[in-house]
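Notes from hallway chat w/ T.B., transcribed later so I don't forget. T.B. wanted the structure written out for a chain they're using in a teaching module, and asked if we could keep both sequence and structure tokens in one place. Agreed to drop them here.
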Amino acid sequence: MSLLELVTKAAANPKTLTAPSTYPIILNPEDSLLSLNPNVENPDPNSLVVPVSGFQISQTDSEIIDSANKFFKKLKRKLKNPSSFNTDDLIGILSSFLEKNGKKVDVSVGVDPSTEGYTRVLIEKLGFLMGRDVSELVLEACLVLGNWELVEALIVNGHVAHSSYSNLVSVLVEKRRSDLVCLCIKHFTDLGSSELLCILKYFLLPPRGAYSSMVAVRKGWESQAKLAIEKASNKDLKGKKSHVAKEAAVLLVIAHDEFLASELCLHYLLSSPNLDDVIFPYSISKLNGEEIMSLIRYLGKWLKKYERFPQAGPCPKASSMLGLKACDSVPTLEAVVKCFGLVLNEHFSSLVLNLEFREELRSMKAVVTSLALEARLCCSVANVVEDLRAEAESGFQKLLEEWFAVILVFLLCRRCRAGHGRSLEVTQEGLIEHAFGKMSND
């Protein structure tokens, strides 16, 4: 049977996981490699491949696998009757399982079992001993029992398998756990279209009851902004640290002020380096008119912020140097412009007929003018704007093209002047083709 046939057969007959894998953990290669012996008496030293025999896993790995199998079956059995299974039971058997395996590999967590959050520490230090199958089952148990503390620990420490992304995001949205949805965005490397669409819809038009959990997200941003201000005003910080602290303070203050709690959650999505260039546009294309207008208003706020504070820019060193981790989750001007371009590409026809969108665009006229002035001072590429103005035919198209073109030119000029990111070589024809190819087609 070919590989394609195997994949097709498996897809046609999906089965729920009922038993753990044969080797659920990463095996220790040292003992296994030392036990290998050549199958031939005089192996060819010039041969790249030598047949060997005698492979066996170490005694420690064998004991951990056996322990994981027993734990898997025990937890699976308890989940069949969740009414008689509670959070304390889960914490008890999970802690016991991790403690025993930790002793087998001679790893100590260094925390007293009576300490609050002890199980979280166990997951952080010894979670790698669970393996994928056990991790998935533990996550399922946490969702059933509503143990959000352990769900957070599994997300942050990378113990959520890709196959669990869709269900986890759906449950978190259903339970209005906005803080954990933000963590998923930060720590999941390849969110699919269904997960991205679910997250976008949730943050753009939050359902009733969602704002209470978004308050925790707002408090996090507020705390980071206050900490940045304190560090910027700390006279004990000298040289580079002082400079970074001041940059971070500006960045975090503009990222916090005037944004709704739901929009602060959107920061994580727009700043994520893991957004796929195919999947993200597809997700945006599935948004309805009300959701698109909410996204445009959010992007408009960012453009006005960057126009008012031209000194604001990426501050990648603030996280490691000063502990200001929120700086890594602030959308750059480049990300904002790119997202707006995706919105235009995917919804241009409907936006042209939307009076609310026209008014939103006209309200940004002052921003466009200001950005145009700075662009002219920065780089001769701003001549592109004048060319576009001369070529525009309709009044609305003229306004739209001017607005989008100036933002692009401003972005390029700022990057050239500030030296952020890689250098760009942009021709006038290339910029026009990239920015307005879709518009001309429509």
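Follow-up for T.B.: The chain has four domains: 26-57, 60-160, 191-352, 364-442. Might be a good example for the class.
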